[in-house]
Structures are given as C-alpha cells and as structure tokens.
Amino acid sequence: MAEIRHHAIDLRKLRDLRDMLGDDEAVLEVLEVYSTSASEGVQVIRDAMERRNDEAIGAAAHRLKSSSFAIGAAVLGQLCAELEAAAAARDWTAIDNARPAFEEHSARVLSEARLLCGIGVRTA
Questions:
Q1: Which domain holds residue 77?
Q2: Is the pTM of this model over 0.70?
Q3: CATH number (domain holding residue 90)
Q4: Is residue 25 part of a domain?
Q5: Chain Cα centroid distance, residue 41
Q6: CA angle, corner 80, sides to 47 and 82, nearest 5?
Q7: pLDDT digits (tens, 9 = 90+) for 6-53
Q8: What is the number of structural domains in the chain?
Q9: Under a CB-based contact definition with an 8 Å cutoff, are residues 11 and 21 in contact?
C-alpha cells in the first residue's frame, strides 16, 4: 500500500496569514523570507550538531521553531522545540535521536516552501 504523505506546510495556516496580511503576495513574501532564513537556520543547527555545540543548537532551534509554527510547519516547529529543550538540558542522546526526523522534516518544509514560492501561492 502506498504511503499517504501530508503537506509539511499547513495550507490552512497560510490562508490565515493571507487573511491577516491582506493578500497572497504578502504570504508569498513571507514564504520567501522563511525559505532563506530557515535554510540558514537548518545549516546552523547541522553545523552545531557536528561541533557538539548545544548552545548554538538551542538558539537556532528557537528561531526556527517560531518561524516554522508561523507558516504552518507544525511538525518542524515541534522538532525544533524538542531540540531546543534537549540542547538546554545538554542531552546529546536526545539531540542525536532527533536528528533524522529533523533532517527529513526540514527538507520537506523547505522543498514545499520553495515550490509554493516558485508557483506563486494561492490560498483561496
């Protein structure tokens, strides 16, 4: 049986953003900014994991968590919250265990955000 995959970005959240911001172009701009900053944040977290720098992981995960929740990437936001907590506790077992899911979901979210930017988001 084929695996059913849900969107990594909740389109209902993007509709809410459109209602708050006024139009689809504003949502597109938010996604473009998110794509750039999230790409950088993901790389900071990866680098910090390699260097075993829990403070850098915590700070970058905190920033990525907030912006991910804001655009409707709740799974990535939750993973960032878990990384942030693990980093605060200096729990390297939890950080290492979270890495595969973080890698998978960050890639999915960034891919969807770039796709939405490329085709122009329509939230109607």
A1: 11-118
A2: yes
A3: 1.20.120.160
A4: yes
A5: 9
A6: 110
A7: 789 998 999 999 999 988 889 999 999 999 999 999 999 999 999 999
A8: 1
A9: no
Which residues make Cβ contacts (< 8 Å) with residue 37, sequence separation at least 6? 63, 67
Residue 58 within any structural domain of the chain = yes
Q: Which of 65, 69, 5, 68 is nearest to 35 (CA)?
A: 68
Residue with tokens 């999230």: 38
Asked if residue 80 is part of any domain, the answer here is yes
The 10s digit of each residue's pLDDT in 72-117 is 999 999 999 999 999 999 999 999 999 999 999 999 999 999 998 8
6-33 burial, b for 16+ CB within 10 Å, e for fewer?
Answer: eebbeeebbbebbeeeeebeebbebbee
Instruction: Say which residue, 50 or 121, is predicted with more confidence.
Output: 50
Closest CA to 84 of 37, 122, 48: 48
Position 5 in a domain: no
